[in-house]
Queue: 2 jobs
Job 1
Amino acid sequence: MPELPEVETVRRGLEESLLGQRISRLITKRADLRFPIPADIQSRTEKKVVISISRKAKFLLITLEDGTIILSHLGMSGRWTIISEDLKSTPGRFAHGGMIGTGEGPHDWVILQFENGTEAVYSDPRRFGFIDVIAPGNEGFHPMLEKLGPDPLPNTLTPDMLNKSLVGRKAPLKASLLNQGIIAGLGNIYVCEALSRARLSPRRRSGTIASERGPTNRIHRLVSSIHDVISEAIDAGGSTLNDYRGVHGEEALGYFPLSFQVYGREGEPCLNEDCSGTVQRYVQSGRSTYSCPTCQR
Ligand SMILES: [Zn+2]
């Protein structure tokens, strides 16, 4: 499943190719993905120029000149592929992923054609992703966006915010960090990594690290760890444990997976400084947790 850093990689790729371009045609190959695609999507988007491509958690927002937004979520297996005029004439375009992302593949569901000849193709074999259209000015009222907490980045998530969200909360720390209303788009792997760096137990009651008087040292440590983990992953082009690809079809594998401190390292030595503990794996709310019981308290 694409995590936030991968989605940010996709955002940057789309921005590079589509910013300032006018949509000539939008083609849908089926009426629904995870949810129905609005039937009037063509009339609301065609002939309009893309003025920004932003991201909120794992949602991509393609904003058009009149304020209309094409909202895209990649779900489990969604991907955007850019086909430019020169690439189209290159047989090498089939080198990655077979027919996927060519506009003619069996899972290519939405095709955005631009006046300059570029095409952006949305493919999604499992169809857990979706495409929606938001009317100008209605971004804050979209049911998928309105309840999202801040993105886990330095300019959006502050120690004060996290402290306020955790005061009095009884849920385990890991569950709180996965709660989209508290932090939006921080996935399972990154939560495990951030907790390891902050040396906090995933099972600790959330409220025990927060204080009504303001952010504690533990909150500061945790927020710094979250920022670091996500920033490093974005710099590395997204982590990814399966065959996730960037928008240009190339493998988007970064070095970051190799530097996981705890994730996927059950039974191996803890990498935290001055700790001789061993990484353990257990299941919390159906998801794998990796942590070191020696230094994560
Ligand atoms: Zn340790």
Job 2
Amino acid sequence: MISLPPALITTPRLIIRRRDPSDAALFKDAVDSSLEHLRQWMPWAHDEPIPLEALRERIAGFALNFEEGREFVYGILSKDGSEALGCLGLHLRNEDTDREIGYWLRVSATGQGFITEAAAAVTTAAFATWPDVQTVTIVCDPANARSAAVPARLGYSCLGNRPSKEPTPARSEDQVWRITREGWHSSTGNGRAAVSQIQP
Ligand SMILES: CC(C)(COP(=O)(O)OP(=O)(O)OC[C@H]1O[C@@H](n2cnc3c(N)ncnc32)[C@H](O)[C@@H]1OP(=O)(O)O)[C@@H](O)C(=O)NCCC(=O)NCCS
């Protein structure tokens, strides 16, 4: 089976950890308080809010996928663990030598650099976990400037737009951002200073 990335990653301001059903109430609050913000860019948010028990089951599925090496969805929490700030997924969507990161934040947690900090930590974790992985990719809607600003801040390069893998009436193209292993270890994008420690 594929090696698993760390279940827990800490940064100066964040706990980034494998989803756990016991966190369901915290994440329900994060989503339910951010519906309009999320619906602009996340198709699943149109089906929210969902009952707490259904969310618990969904999170249990994320946890199982993590344990079985299918995809690695992390919850992002405040340093004291009292508030769910958002989510970040590390996916096996592209070639074997690539990993893809996706993310969202609750609306009240935006504008503070949290996703930049989390994406930096998880990019580092991806290269450290899988020696054969040569690139990490972030894909966004070309119109989603705030999302694109995250990889730009971290020194990823924009490879341009490509036809969307899952086109919708509102989105026919994906914008692709990518960084190489070499580029990551030699660049000093400003989000990088925030990353402290990775705990396996
Ligand atoms: C995409 C999304 C996560 C980006 O959130 P964000 O708050 O803009 O990103 P960050 O957490 O990295 O914060 C960056 C902002 O904090 C500021 N900031 C403050 N302290 C900072 C720090 N220490 N480091 C970096 N940025 C910092 C930056 O200047 C920037 O502000 P600006 O937007 O005014 O330029 C958020 O808009 C979101 O959840 N959108 C809905 C879901 C979505 O679109 N997901 C992506 C799908 S591809």
